[in-house]
Amino acid sequence: MEDLMLCLKENKHNYTLLEGSVLKINSFHKMIALILSHGSQEVYLNKRLKIQLSRMAKEIERLLVNDKYDLIHCHDPIAGYVANLARKKLNINIPIVETIHGPMAYETKMMVGREIDQSQYLTRLLQIEKEAFINSDHLIAVDTGQANIAINDFSINKNKITIMFNSVSCETIDSIVKDPPLTKVEKPYLLVPRRLVEKTGVRIAIEALAKIGSDTKVNLVIAGDGPLKNKLMQLTKDLKLEVQVIFLGSIDRKEVLRLGKEALAVVVPSIPSCGVIEATSIAVIEAMACGTVAIASNIGGLAELIENNKTGLLVPHSDPVALGKAVSVIFEDQDMRNKICRQGREYVLKNLDTPIWYSKVKQIYEKVCLDNKPLK
């Protein structure tokens, strides 16, 4: 998002960013919603969603009334859904572009722990997601998997979808990683920049460390927080890896990048969970841009992003033995490691650097703009 705003600014385009923090429900309203729900999670989630939709609708309507915009670009289905309602209510003929980063209802199902057909809240989210996709003028899917979900689960015409991987600004990353990390970790180490939830597979990385032979002495740095922290720390203790595994918690993105630059490899051991499969990972792209080997599960957008043994390493998901072997390979074969680092970096520069990505986004903007006048 920051990169898109920077590109728009550099190209002399005005924009307004409607952030989630602007629409955040304060503690008082959350408490009222909880009281009115009588302790029912289902009722509470529905009431909170209703408040969220109402606030977003008012804010989008205010913006559309007070300013003239050429288009709306949404990055989640709720925003896309509300934007469509707003343009209909105000009778404004403005195109909407929606980027699909992941399946909202399916990911929420994973967090709520219920099936969609057993939850009014999840059913409502699924309907919102479908209407957002149907009513958008164009969809950008961050990988083939997200496009297929839109086509197969929501009956979206494939001609309405452009598959476009996420991007990073190599120039910005280079300016950040020129300085060493402030966090002192004994080298060599593996970096796992992941939230501590089931689908990110951090458990697999810890188990893989236990499978690596004594000849491959590496540390494991985990940058992220989440509900599984205590379980993962206990696993580390059970495997007698307390000295080698370092939990940093949530840290600044710049520090994550600097740690990634110095790492033996950045590991993204994602696993399928509740029907959710990892899309194109920013963590992988950033590792490649830093000139660091990315080791990732051979699933979803990760498998599309990495060419195995060329721009990174792919391993079967949920397989700590295979992951451990991949780590040993790059530890022992410096020539191979250097080759992958170089080729991964070159791939990002040629295909996923922000200016290249923005030129593709700009083409979509021009296509959907009602007057068909090219952006200068």
List its salient traits:
Rossmann fold, four-stranded parallel sheet, alpha/beta, 10 strands, globular, 376 residues
Short description:
The protein has helices spanning 2-10, 27-36, 41-66, 77-89, 104-112, 120-135, 144-154, 170-177, 202-211, 229-238, 253-262, 282-289, 300-305, 320-332, 334-351, 354-368, and strands at residues 72-74, 96-100, 138-141, 161-163, 189-192, 219-223, 245-249, 265-268, 293-297, 313-315. The chain has 376 residues and is α/β, with parallel strands linked by helices.
What does this structure look like?
By secondary structure, this protein is α/β, with parallel strands linked by helices. The protein folds into 2 domains: 2-167 and 354-368, Rossmann fold (3-Layer(aba) Sandwich), CATH 3.40.50; 170-351, Glycogen Phosphorylase B (Rossmann fold), CATH 3.40.50.2000. The chain has 16 helices and 10 strands. It has a 6-stranded parallel beta sheet with strand order 7-6-5-8-9-10, with helices on both faces. Helix 7 (144-154) links the parallel strand 3 (138-141) and strand 4. The chain is globular, with a radius of gyration of 22 Å. The mean pLDDT is 91.
- Sheet with the most strands: spatial strand order: 7-6-5-8-9-10
Distance separating the two termini: 21 Å
CATH topology-level fold name of the largest domain: Rossmann fold
* Number of contiguous helices: 16
Reading off the top of the CATH hierarchy, the class of the largest domain is best stated as Alpha Beta
List the helices and strands and how they pair.
Elements: H1 2-10, H2 27-36, H3 41-66, E1 72-74, H4 77-89, E2 96-100, H5 104-112, H6 120-135, E3 138-141, H7 144-154, E4 161-163, H8 170-177, E5 189-192, H9 202-211, E6 219-223, H10 229-238, E7 245-249, H11 253-262, E8 265-268, H12 282-289, E9 293-297, H13 300-305, E10 313-315, H14 320-332, H15 334-351, H16 354-368
Parallel strand pairs: 1-2, 2-3, 3-4, 5-6, 5-8, 6-7, 8-9, 9-10
Helix pairs in contact: 2-3, 3-4, 4-6, 5-6, 9-14, 12-15
